Amino acid sequence: MTRILIVEDEAQMRQGLKDNLEFEGYEVNTAEDGEQCLSMVEKNEYNLILLDIMLPKLSGFDACKQLRGKGFDRPIIMLTAKGEEIDKVLGLELGADDYLTKPFSLRELLARIKAVLRREDRGKNKGINVTVGKIEVNFSKFEAFEGGKNIVLSHREFEVLKYLWEYENQIVSREELMKEVWGMGEMTTTRTVDNFILKLRQTIEEDPSHPKHIITVHGMGYKYIP
Ligand code: CA
């Protein structure tokens, strides 16, 4: 069973989240502040932590940093209020996996939870070769093979393919790819993404003009189907 720790100081919000997640079949514990969060993680195993940023005693930022410092390596989703420093949330030294800005819908929360848990499951398989369309890929070594022969992919091609693969059967928007793979600093257009997808199809599809693995979802983005 997947066990989630909710760290939130507002009682109503905390209880509401707990009830909803339990209804979805998760086992849920709660903590009211950053210090309680740390002591609970020492005593129990959690698959995921929902961590509010503005907390008494120890902020969500500091709690997250300390958890990572102590070797907690499961996903952490930060809960932020509008205007809080999102850049900091996703900063590498902090080590959070994702964030949600309040107010968020339950549907959105559940989608994020599933996504980070799925990514984590896939992360465990990073060292092995996986089949993606007609090729085999080792995402941790940046190696790709077709019929046992090494083929060359650019670093970014690996990144795009990996992102789609991590979100198997889910729609990934062009904007999301631009943000997650290219990053905010670069000049990217949706056209750049589309051209990349065309190239990737040449690489992984048996028949690139009739793609079966990286399909276009009109008006929404792309979806990788194994
Ligand atoms: Ca709070």
Structure, described:
There is one protein chain. The chain is α/β, with parallel strands linked by helices and 226 residues long. It folds into 2 domains: 3-123, Rossmann fold; 130-224, Winged helix-like DNA-binding domain superfamily/Winged helix DNA-binding domain (Arc Repressor Mutant, subunit A, Orthogonal Bundle), CATH 1.10.10. Helices cover 41% and strands 21% of the residues. The protein is built from 8 helices and 12 strands. The protein has helices spanning 11-23, 34-43, 60-69, 86-89, 106-124, 155-166, 174-182, 190-204, and strands spanning 3-7, 27-31, 48-52, 76-80, 98-101, 130-132, 135-138, 143-146, 149-151, 171-172, 214-217, 221-224. The strands form 3 sheets. It has a 5-stranded parallel β-sheet, sandwiched between helices. The longest helix is centred in the middle third of the chain and has 19 residues, at 106-124. It is elongated and about 55 Å long. The two termini are 26 Å apart. The model has no long low-confidence stretch (mean pLDDT 89). Bound molecules: calcium ion. Calcium ion is lined by residues 9-10, 52, 54-55. Residues 9-10, 52, 54-55 line the site of calcium ion.
- The succession of helices and strands, N to C, reads EHEHEHEHEHEEEEHEHHEE
CATH superfamily of the largest domain: Response regulator
Largest sheet: 5 strands, parallel
Mean pLDDT over the residues: 89
**Would you identify the regions where 5 or more consecutive residues have pLDDT less than 50?**
none
Described by the principal axes of the CA atoms, the overall outline is elongated
Biggest sheet strand line-up: 2-1-3-4-5
Number of strands: 12
SS-based class: alpha/beta
Secondary structure tally, helices: 8
Question: Percent of residues in beta strands?
Answer: 15-25%
Distance between the termini: 26 Å
